[in-house]
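Case study 2.
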Amino acid sequence: MTAQPSYTRTLPDATDSWRFCVAPMIDVTDRHCRYFHRLLAPQARLYTEMITTGALLHGNVARHLDFDPAEEPVALQLGGSEPDALADAAKLGEQWGYNEINLNCGCPSERVQRGAFGACLMAEPQLVADCIKAMQDAVTVPVTVKHRLGLDYDDSYGFVRDFVGTLHQAGCRVFIVHARNAVLKGLSPKDNREIPPLRYDTALRLKVDFPDSVFVLNGGIALADDALSLMSEFDGVMLGRAAWHQPGVLSEINRGLDSDVELPEPAQVIQAMRVYAESQIKSGVPLRMILRPMLGWMNGRPGSRYWRRTLSDAALLKQNDAGLLEKAWADLVLRTSDDPC
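Prediction:
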């Protein structure tokens, strides 16, 4: 059995399904990270890392798709460019219980480009439309797209408008817009998250031109106040690296969305994660994998350096004792003279 929150969780209304999302991030949003994020933000929509069709159709499906029911609503992001393969992978996702299938049309990495998917798919909107249609025919859950505003240094609005329009004709109605271009040559994935300028105004034009669709803004959103403000202009916002570096911002946004929603106190999160860690360790998961997403949780708080030091201590992690979490918390409380809740 995995940990069950000791507070009442309220799921978001169906009309607000994409109001608050946490982005799919490779090597970040695995199931352990999502379990932790769910504790911090009961109303957020969570996404898997990008999983390629080949990994699902020719690999260990359970390893890629297993998740805890407490994570829901959770979406599966797929990487691929072959309609039949994407349809088969989408079927697996729906069978496994995912609430949404999302197609990656935004990743600019060279590895993804070699596979002819990710951001380079924006140059082939009709192929993407065929992929969307194949997945829609295969599943009953929403099929959505995450994309950029353009490729390389082409800032023309017509490019992204026509891309979205082609997918719209195929029946896609939910678009997650990373409001930057993807530069396919010369910039690393990290640079692609920082160097191409943000163009929120261009993303907003899409919402005006396709009023029957949902547009979720992604890119450059790091502060709770900014996220909540942008929700008044877009149908939702999606946080990326901020959720990794400053996970506490997820609770701030959730509290701003609905002050009546009960959020767990830090001590409750610690207890829930300890129970979860104990169950995962019994299944052979190293403790370090479970604690990785928690390292930045105390950033900005006095004593955060000691928190990170304890949870990243190789000798302590090697013991695979979930009690390390409570040790780190007790040490933080002792050093800062805080009430442990």
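DSSP finds 17 helices and ten strands in the chain.
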